[in-house]
Specification:
- The structure is a single chain.
- This protein has one domain.
- By secondary structure, the protein is mainly α.
């Protein structure tokens, strides 16, 4: 989880990919961390049909261009910059427990 948070904060992962990766940790975490992950459930739910970078190589270039516009709109809607404090909090809480 720390690696994903750091990659997002460093600009190496987009918001959609970060949401998908963080949700892999959703089960079995402490309640305060689970609460921080709740927003990523919504992001994942609304963007599950959009391809992340590792999937984009498999897409037709014309179809991918339309999806990239949807990705940009989703990241704007969910405010990738506004999510950084949420991810920073995850990073902080997880680091405290290690």
């Amino acid at each position: 989880m720390l690696t994903v948070a750091r990659q997002f904060l460093g600009g190496d992962l987009g918001l959609i990919e970060t949401a998908r990766e963080l949700l892999k940790f959703r089960d079995g975490v402490e309640p305060d961390i689970g609460t921080l992950l709740d927003i990523f459930v919504s992001i994942r739910s609304e963007t599950d049909a959009l391809p992340i970078p590792t999937e984009q190589a498999l897409w037709n270039s014309q179809a991918l261009e339309a999806e990239r516009r949807k990705i940009a709109a989703a990241e704007l809607r969910w405010g990738a910059e506004q999510m950084k404090p949420q991810v920073s909090s995850l990073n902080y809480l997880k680091a405290l427990r290690n």
